[in-house]
Design goal:
Blueprint lengths: L1 E3 L2 E6 L4 H5 L3 H16 L1 H10 L8 H10 L8 E6 L2 E6 H4 L1 H16 L4 H15 L4 H9 L6 E9 L11 E9 L1 H18 L10 H5 L1 E13 H4 L4 E4 L3 H7 L1 E6 H19 L2 H4 L4 H20 L6 H5 L3 H22 L5 H22 L6 H16 L14 H20 L3 H11 L3 H6 L11
Parallel strand pairs: 7-9
Antiparallel strand pairs: 1-2, 2-7, 3-4, 5-6, 6-7, 8-9
């Protein structure tokens, strides 16, 4: 692992040897090259953490005024500098060239060792996209077209959470994984069941445009990961961040199996054993809760795909991430009722998912205290947790007493409706007022005071 300060910006995982045995000699050769690229990409993320995306001391108002004259300032793929008193947008491919060129060359080397034509074409497109901004869309399209490869790989400026001003600028990251075909197939069956029910929903705030274009799901054994998802130990991610591209080609969800299992062992299960009353905790086995963690991640990512609307980032600006994060939880669990009706989830499994939902939010708080990058997650989480406590769905008594699952589900349905309204057409002012009224991070201090012995650096 590689860290900078208290941040883990590169993680390498040991996975079961049986997954390596299934790889060809060619795959192993390519894997070695790509693993090196993932580690090398940490320098890009580290630089972005250090210098940000905008000149030091510049205000949001100044940026908004400058963008009227020069729209490139708020391009997702430009670094903003002040030259001769004016703000200018420098393309990432220029600003980070000395980092990107060696990585691009190594990607071409990996492509040269590959005989899988679709994977080879994709790797070459990724190499090109690092040096030509216009190539990102083509690389994404080709990534979705890769066939018959056990390896999956991404690299590029992909995540927007570090941009606290507008949630537009993207941070570099990379990942390499071995696809788990069995778990991927199972996840796809849950996706199809959930989306087929959502299309019949009477809620006027559902958007099924992206699911119609296709939402792919990959469950992967993570070999190496860098940047933001390593930094905050992401359990999963959805791509792309650009809604227009998702509407053209569809989207992809990656479940980082190695990361969520580590998170479960080090954080989720210890938190569960600590904060819930022993009589209640004894009803749910460790294996059930680990499975529920996987379902929770999938539901969270699938729920977010139902509510992707054009220009929402521009409309809600820095308020979009916390609204989107809260909606991922609320809409994912709200739609899980369809899986219960179809017999894909039992009532006990749904309860376990809601338990992990609570634990997940508290775990995020422990991580947030070490890493300000999770701020938007915490604001979204606090909206939900404050609602559960204020409405009596959860009660504190030397920890958390028996949760009222029916009331939690009712609150989730109510909040999901409000959040999807904001995403579809709510104004910045409406979202701002809602967050001010309902978000309160102090609640996590109360709930986590018994968790001081749980380590968050691992």
């Amino acid at each position: 692992m590689q860290s900078t300060g208290d941040k883990m910006i590169y993680r390498k995982f040991r996975i079961d040897n049986k997954y390596y045995k299934d790889l060809s000699q060619e795959d192993k050769k390519i894997l070695k090259i790509l693993e090196g690229i993932v580690k090398e990409s940490t320098a890009l993320y580290e630089l972005q953490l250090k210098e940000g995306f905008y000149p030091k001391g510049i205000t949001k108002r100044e940026l908004e005024q400058a963008v009227i004259i020069n729209p490139e300032i708020l391009s997702p793929l430009t670094f903003v500098e002040k030259k001769n008193g004016n703000l200018v947008g420098i393309p990432y491919s220029v600003h980070y060239f000395k980092y990107l060129k060696p990585i691009s060359d190594k990607l071409q080397k990996a492509a040269g060792a590959c005989t899988n034509k679709s994977f080879q074409t994709y790797l070459n497109a990724r190499a090109k996209s690092l040096l030509e901004v216009a190539g990102y869309e083509e690389a994404y399209k080709l990534w979705l077209s890769v066939k018959n490869s056990k390896l999956d790989f991404t690299i590029g400026p992909l995540e927007t959470h570090l941009d606290k001003a507008f949630s537009i600028k993207r941070a570099y990251q990379a990942h390499l994984g071995i696809i788990d075909l069995e778990q991927t197939k199972l996840a796809a069956s849950y996706k199809e069941a959930l989306y087929s029910s959502a299309k019949l929903s009477f809620s006027k705030y559902h958007s099924t445009d992206i699911p119609r274009k296709g939402v792919g799901v990959l469950v992967e054994h993570t070999l190496a990961i860098s940047g933001y998802p390593a930094d905050i130990l992401s359990s999963g991610q959805q791509f792309p961040r650009n809604i227009d591209i998702a509407l053209k080609y569809g989207s992809r969800i990656i479940i980082y199996s190695s990361q969520f299992k580590l998170k479960f062992e080090k954080l989720y299960y210890p938190i569960f054993k600590t904060i819930f009353e022993p009589r209640f905790a004894s009803k749910y086995s460790k294996d059930l809760l680990l499975e529920a963690t996987g379902w929770s991640i999938l539901l969270y990512e699938l729920g977010k795909q139902l509510h992707k609307f054009p220009a929402v980032r521009e409309r809600l600006q820095e308020l979009y991430p916390p609204i989107d994060e809260a909606n991922g939880f609320a809409s994912g669990i709200e739609h899980s009722k369809h899986l219960v009706v179809k017999g894909l989830l039992s009532q006990e499994q749904l309860e376990a998912i809601m338990i992990i939902h609570i634990v997940w939010m508290i775990a995020d708080w422990l991580l947030y205290k070490q890493n300000i990058a999770k701020q938007s997650h915490m604001i979204g989480n606090s909206i939900l947790l404050n609602s559960y406590l204020s409405q009596g769905a959860l009660r504190e008594s030397e920890g958390i007493s028996w949760p009222n699952f029916s009331r939690i589900f009712f609150e989730i349905e109510t909040i999901a409706y409000k959040l999807t309204y904001f995403l579809q057409k709510g104004s910045y002012k409406e979202a701002e007022q809602f967050i001010k009224k309902n978000a309160n991070l102090r609640i996590f201090e109360r709930l986590s005071k018994t968790l001081t012995k749980i380590p968050t650096q691992f």
